[in-house]
Each structure stands twice: as C-alpha cells, then as structure tokens.
Design brief:
355 residues; mainly alpha; 3-stranded antiparallel sheet; two-stranded antiparallel ribbon; 12 helices; globular
Length: 355
C-alpha cells in the first residue's frame, strides 16, 4: 500500500544501519513524529527548535504523553480514509452504510479486548472527555440516590477536577447522562459525528494488542530493567518513585538526589523525557502524584519520567543511560550539597542560618 512506500522513505532518511541491518523495532521507533526543521549553520545534521540546538533527533522516551503510530494501524486508517469516507450516521445510502459498518467492526474489536459487550462501547474524543462523561454523567444520573464520590489524590487531573466541579455544585464527591446535546449519536450518549478513520484505527490497535500484548509486556519489562540497572550501576542516590512490582513496566519514574529536575531535563536535550503529565508540564511545581505517594518535595523536584514502548530498542535505552548518567554527574559536580555529602556531612541535620 501507499503507506509502505512512505515508511520506507522515512526509514532510509531517519535511520542508520546497526551492524549492517536495521531491526524492525529500531526503524519503527525512529519514525515516531518527524517534523521538519532547518539545520543549524555549520552542522548539516543539527536541529534548532524553540531556541534549542541538538545534534539530531532525540531518543523518544515519553510514551506516557503519546506513542508512535503502528504502521499497521496507519494502513487501516489510510484505507478507511480512501474507501470509508461516508458519514457513518447517513443511513440512506451505501457510503453511509459502509462507514457505519467500519465503526461497528471497530466497536467489536474494542469490546473483545476488554471483555465487554459492543453495546457498552461509546466513542468519544479522548480520555479527558471520557473521564468527564463517566464521573459527571454517572453522578448526575444518580444525584437523587447516591451523593458520594470516592477518588484518590493520584488520579489524573481531569478526574480530580470533575470531582471538584461536582463538589461545587453541592454534590459531595451504571448509567451515563450525556454531557452534550445534538444529533443523538452513540445511542444518545455522545452527540457528534464520529471520526470513522480514527475509530477504525482504534479498533485495529485493540486487535493488535490482543495478539501482541503479552510479548510487548515482556519486552518492555526487559528494557525497564536494563534502564534502571544501567543507571544504578553508575550513580548513587537514585530512587524509584512508586512500587517496582505494582506498576506498568513502561513507566519508570526516577528521582536523582542533589540534582534539580528542570536543569536535568534541559540538559537531556538528546532524550525526549518528561517530569510528569503533559497536562501539567507547563507548571514548575513537582508532580502532585509523587507528593501524594509520600515523596519528599526536594526529591519530587528531581524526578524524571522515562516512558518505554513496544518500539523502543535496547540501543536507545543504552544511549539514554549514558546521557542521563553524564548529565547527572555534571550537575552534581556543581552542587555544593553533593560535595558535602561526599565529605560525610549529614545535610539533613544542618541548621541553616538566615541572613
């Protein structure tokens, strides 16, 4: 299909052979979000964006914010854009019927993955709308019977803010009540024309997950251990935030003692990582999730979230370890606190005087 030619071109332009061959995982990883940038004067391989100059495209280890598209999902969406371009809610002609059928196939694929009935699947615009619909919709529907919502401090912002909204309405913190009115699509639960191609892609992604999730989990767990062990072998004062057992292996949140997190992020220009949720990344405050887990504020300020995915390679992990260790060591060399610790001084018992 046309997408094969596209990805072939991307592979040739964005990857270099490792030992004479490019692995499937390696080339899929590096095709993740190509954006055009002007090369830096004097260095044809350099990239300058938003005032930051880097020698090439960084390693992508921010999988909790978004993930690269599987080429097989792209193929399905591309084909749907060409052939299923009718409105799935147009019930009077063939084009609408074909698009509607594509949506219903996807609904079945999603339902199979989570063990639900296709009638229980409602397509929305994304996780924020879905969480708002569930929290607000359920509580509005049962407002005369149930008036309590129990949540946790580590929940996503859209859940916490939905609960606060209900509290402001005078309801302390299943059937849904729709949040929007319109054409009555999705059995009246979510009005608005469905994006057929995105729904089709979601369905294919769920079908692939059913087939490959077990393998992907083992691969990601292996890379997580490689990353953690690699960093710990070369650095002291590295703390894993959260349980190593009860966690998703693709999320490794580390704190580096005596290092300021924002400085570490700025120094890791060749690795795309994050200090927390993309929804709150504009804030310099430490992650509210880490603070809710009991992480001290100074350690929460030093945290970096590494996101590992199915297309991440061992070579990328090893390079990330190398760059992270190098930057942490560089920042610690400039830290008077770390110098005091190396001299055996217990900085927690120091009484600092104010001037």
């Amino acid at each position: 299909m046309a997408s094969k030619a596209i990805f072939s071109t991307l592979r040739r332009s964005l990857t270099k052979p490792l030992g004479g061959a490019v692995s499937r995982r390696h080339h899929l990883s590096t095709t993740s979000a190509a954006t055009a940038s002007e090369p830096y004067p004097g260095d044809e391989h350099a990239i300058v964006m938003k005032g930051v100059r880097i020698s090439g495209r960084p390693l992508y280890l921010d999988m909790q914010s978004t993930t690269p598209l599987d080429p097989r999902v792209f193929d399905a969406m591309n084909a749907s854009s060409i052939y299923d371009y009718g409105n799935p809610h147009s019930r009077t002609h063939l084009y609408g019927w074909e698009a509607e059928n594509a949506v219903e196939v996807a609904r079945i694929q999603v339902a199979k993955l989570i063990g639900a009935s296709p009638k229980e699947i409602v397509f929305l615009s994304g996780a924020t709308e879905a969480n708002n619909t569930v929290v607000k919709g359920v509580m509005h529907f049962y407002k005369d019977k149930k008036r309590h919502v129990i949540t946790t401090q580590t929940e996503h912002k859209c859940v916490l803010d939905s609960c606060r909204h209900l509290q402001q309405e005078g309801r302390p913190r299943v059937r849904l009540e729709p949040l929007m009115n319109g054409g009555g699509q999705e059995r009246g639960l979510r009005s608005g024309t469905l994006a057929t191609q995105q729904v089709v892609g979601f369905g294919v992604a769920c079908e692939l997950a059913m087939k490959e999730m077990e393998y992907d989990e083992k691969w990601i767990k292996r890379l997580q251990e490689r990353l953690l062990n690699g960093v710990r072998e070369k650095l002291d004062g590295v703390v894993v935030n959260g349980s190593l057992e009860s966690r998703y292996a693709g999320n490794l949140n580390l704190s580096f003692a005596y290092v300021e997190g924002e400085s570490l992020l700025m120094g890791l220009k060749e690795v795309a990582v994050s200090s927390g949720s993309a929804c709150t990344s504009a804030s310099l405050e430490p992650s509210y999730v880490l603070r809710a887990l009991g992480v001290d504020e100074d350690m929460a300020h030093t945290s970096i979230r590494f996101g590992i995915g199915r297309f991440t390679t061992e070579e990328e992990i090893d390079k990330a370890v190398e760059l992270t260790v190098k930057q942490v060591e560089k920042l610690r060399e400039m830290s008077p606190l770390y110098e005091m610790v190396k001299e055996g001084i217990d900085i927690k018992n120091i009484q600092w005087s104010q001037h």
